[in-house]
Amino acid sequence: MVFSLPPTDEELKQAVEVYKALGNQVAAAAHLGMPRGTLQGRLRAAALRGFMLDTPAAMPGFRVSRVNQGPNGKSVEQKPEHGAPFEVPAGHVIKGVSALVNADGEEVVKWIKTKEGERDPLETAEAIKAAFAGYKPSAKPVKAPPGAAADLLTLLPANDWHIGMFAWGKEVGGENWDLKIAEDTIGRSVEDTLARSPSSGECVILGGGDLLHADNSDNKTAKSGNALQVDGRYQKVVGVAVRLMVRTADAALRRHQRVTLRILPGNHDEHSAVAIAYFLLAWYRNEPRVTVDVDPSLFFWFRFGQVLLGATHGHTVKIAQMPGIMAHRRAPDWGETKFRYVHGFHLHHSAKIATEGDGVICEVHQAPIPQDAWHFGSGFLSGRSLQAITYHKEFGEVGRVRTAILDAVDPA
């Protein structure tokens, strides 16, 4: 499309003079050799410049905003033709531009539409860095505990912590919840649970997804756009989350020989989970007893002798589908193991879906947090706990330690 240049002041004055002389837009347009729509556009522009008045024209760069009729004749009020230059709001990107043009293709009004852009990974990195401003990674590895049983593996599901969630007790049945309470309650519960677990040669800290309640400062779920009640700025929430994961891994190192860390993404923290996993990878780079698994998959698999473990958060695949997925994707391990377990999360309540008669025991785990306003208002009921499950490499599960956290009671 070809656009003509805006008409000059002289061309606008000419259009006004011809129109006034002939008294008719059709005749004036024909006299000037232009379409009527073009003439109308020039007359509108001339009016804004003051050329349709018996008063001085608007100054260059200004337009007529109001005509006043006084005892001494007409006067005009003028405003700048343009406002201040448009600046994209911080954190936003331009997603589209719409324009209203006249018959000559001249722009009359423009709309610039923006949206919040993807969070810069450097912002997340800086938030984590700030949270540990007063810390230094340990240059010397922590001494391993004596007497750890090499034929035992302890699994600690660290799922659905929803760090940053805010709950007002009067709205959710009596219990307040915020960042400070979460860090204290979950931190002490994790340390207590791991301290009471058998000292094992292997320990897996399995972040089961939804470590954070919100994935950015929008405070909405990414897929559904549901509004979330969040305590604190995003950077503050990230700081608490990484401190709790370090506190958990350190507690495991005091009790177990080797520690594997895996942070699965959930529907609340798809991007933050990746950032936290890589933070942990850097944090424990000098600790040979820690392995940080940064596999980007939504699934976790771990072979320990005759035991095969699997896990997923549960927002993309239902737990009942996991035995089939395990059998196909881990066929060699399936054929060489006797005890197979799948762990799921997301639902916040305890359930066992499949029996060992189907080849896999599938278990959904409780969360340690209370309900937020939405879940409480929807009538959901679930207990709260943390647990460490111990497996023997030849005999499967041999025990578990559970820390109950003020289990919910049905008011009925």
Quickly describe the structure:
The protein is of the alpha/beta class.
Which key phrases capture this entry?
412 residues, alpha/beta, six-stranded mixed sheet, 15 strands, disordered C terminus
Which SSEs are present, and which pair or pack?
Elements: H1 9-22, H2 25-32, H3 36-49, E1 62-70, E2 73-80, E3 92-101, E4 107-116, H4 121-131, E5 149-157, H5 179-195, E6 200-207, H6 234-255, E7 258-263, H7 272-283, E8 290-293, E9 299-304, E10 307-312, H8 322-329, H9 331-336, E11 339-344, E12 351-352, E13 361-364, H10 373-377, E14 385-392, E15 396-404
Parallel strand pairs: 5-6, 6-7, 7-8, 10-11, 11-13
Antiparallel strand pairs: 1-2, 3-4, 5-14, 9-10, 12-13, 14-15
Characterization of this structure:
A 6-stranded mixed β-sheet has the order 8-7-6-5-14-15. Strands 9-10-11-13-12 form a 5-stranded mixed β-sheet, covered by helices on one side. The chain has a two-stranded antiparallel sheet with strand order 1-2. The chain is 28% helix and 25% strand. Helix 2 crosses helix 3 and helix 5 runs parallel beside helix 6. The longest helix is centred in the middle third of the chain and has 22 residues. The radius of gyration is 33 Å and the shape is elongated. The C terminus is likely disordered. Helix 7 links the parallel strand 7 and strand 8. It is an alpha/beta fold and 412 residues long. The protein starts with 8 loop residues before the first helix and ends in an 8-residue tail after the last strand.
How helix-rich are the residues, as a percent range? 25-40%
**pLDDT average, as an integer?**
82
Distance between the termini: 70 Å
Along the chain, the helix and strand elements come as: HHHEEEEHEHEHEHEEEHHEEEHEE
Question: SS-based structural class?
Answer: alpha/beta
The largest sheet, given as strand count, sense and whether it forms a barrel, is: 6 strands, mixed
- Number of DSSP helical runs: 10
Q: How large, in whole angstroms, is the Cα Rg? A: 33 Å
- Strand fraction equals 25-35%
Shape: elongated
Any low-confidence stretches, pLDDT <50, length ≥5? 407-412
Say how many strands there are: 15
Strand arrangement, major sheet: 8-7-6-5-14-15
